Amino acid sequence: MATIRNILIVAQDGRLQYEALLFAASLRHFPENRDLRLVVAEPQPGPLWQGDPRISRPAIRRELRALGADIIPLHSKVFGARYPQGNKLEALALLPTGEAFAFFDTDTLITGPIVDVVAGPPTASVRVEPTWPREPLYGPSLAQIWGALYDRFGLEMALTLNTRFGADDWRRYLYFNAGWFTGTCPHQMGERLLHYVAAIERDPPPELATQTLFPWLDQIVLPLAIAAEGGGRRDTGLDGPKSLHYRALPEIYAYASDHAVDILEQVTRAAHLWDIFNQHVAFRRMIFKENGPALRQIIAGTPPPFTYWARRKQIMDAGYWVR
């Protein structure tokens, strides 16, 4: 079967540019991944940005290119600063039409070869928490909320249900973490996602009256688009041995495998990269001042809390939260 060859991330000024460098360096750390095309979408100044969102560190730009990344301007027409999570949807248009792809958030560490990820039906990360929707006390139900969205776009929700779980269980419904997702044509998926976003934001179904759309909008439309393209839940290894969506560096030291920590430290301590990473407070404190190993000893043997906010609180209580 064909495999994915195009990898997309979005990088800009601030923390994301350092995360993008870590992503690229960990991707190329594995020789098998060196023939993958890495596209870095870089938002450009414009009416949807108050300032300049471009990568500000020349050294990071230089090293990304040395790692084989194609840095391509992204001229935001829909989201920009008002909803940065949505810029990934616009960035899909920068990839070659008709070619399979994988998108990753920059706060992802590649921990193994991903060159063998099959370009099958679209899918996304199932390392997800019950962040949306919130079921109101007096209704509508989860089934009614999701059903209204599927009906709006002429989709068959029944084909997506995980029937191991009951109607009141959020796990029954197709809901993904947008930290990574794959597709067979970036232009087709991007156009579909943007169409769904515009329709929901402009005229949400009545069943969504009590729901908060932001910051969950990208994750609301993702399962709809994946279902529309014949995709669904699929094991790619990207939620396990091949990649780690860490959100904040302390989470790697607190909860990730020894292998993931080893990859992080090998990549960031490379002779030509360490001084760049050392310029960001999270990398400096967790890696180069060795707060990370200290946190790992404190948390060792403690089951990771299920939600991001609970994990963050546990790390904060230990005195090591930084992002």
Automatic annotation (TrEMBL):
Name of the featured protein: Glycosyl transferase family 8
